[in-house]
């Protein structure tokens, strides 16, 4: 790299596809970008934690759903340069099937949470439709 090049700032995030049968848990975003849009629970990986630990923490903070990080199954890395309007974000996505008695409630930066039927999803923020498409194609 030359002295005139500006390295691109890359932010590291984790997303969670939490399913309960044929339903997926989505949050309504409480902040820009995509404020008011539905999205997978997720967020920044904090210093000193793995993306798997961050995924479990974000799921708990945003939905009240507690999972063991070791139970999360990695489904992919999403790094398209334009996937987030705030800049370059690289996200590791995880999946987990939660127990039938799981209760979710909005917390942290989630304005709302809802179990959506996988066959009838609203428009999703970021590239979250692609993440869900990847997961559902693996199960066919």
What keyword list fits this structure?
single chain; 140 residues; alpha+beta; Nucleoside Triphosphate Pyrophosphohydrolase; seven-stranded mixed β-sheet; 2 helices
Structure, described:
The chain is an alpha+beta fold and 140 residues long. The chain has one domain (10-138): Nucleoside Triphosphate Pyrophosphohydrolase (Alpha-Beta Complex). The chain is 17% helix and 34% strand. The relative contact order is 0.28.
The Cα radius of gyration reads: 15 Å
Which shape, going by the Cα principal axes? globular
CATH class: Alpha Beta
Q: Briefly note the CATH topology name.
A: Nucleoside Triphosphate Pyrophosphohydrolase
**Proportion in β-strands:** 25-35%
Mean pLDDT across every amino acid position: 93
Q: Give the helix/strand class.
A: alpha+beta
Helix run count: 2
Number of strands: 7
């Amino acid at each position: 790299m030359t002295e005139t090049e500006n390295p691109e700032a890359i932010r590291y995030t984790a997303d969670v596809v939490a399913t309960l049968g044929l339903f997926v848990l989505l949050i309504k975003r409480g902040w820009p970008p995509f404020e008011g849009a539905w999205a997978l629970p997720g967020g920044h990986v904090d210093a000193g934690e793995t993306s798997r630990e961050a995924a479990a923490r974000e799921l708990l903070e945003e939905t009240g759903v507690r999972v063991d990080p070791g139970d999360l199954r990695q489904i992919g890395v999403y790094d398209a340069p334009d996937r987030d309007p705030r800049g370059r974000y690289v996200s590791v996505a995880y999946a987990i099937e939660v127990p039938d008695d799981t209760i979710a409630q909005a917390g942290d930066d989630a304005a709302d949470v809802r179990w959506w039927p996988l066959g009838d999803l609203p428009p999703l923020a970021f590239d979250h439709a692609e993440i869900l498409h990847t997961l559902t194609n693996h199960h066919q």
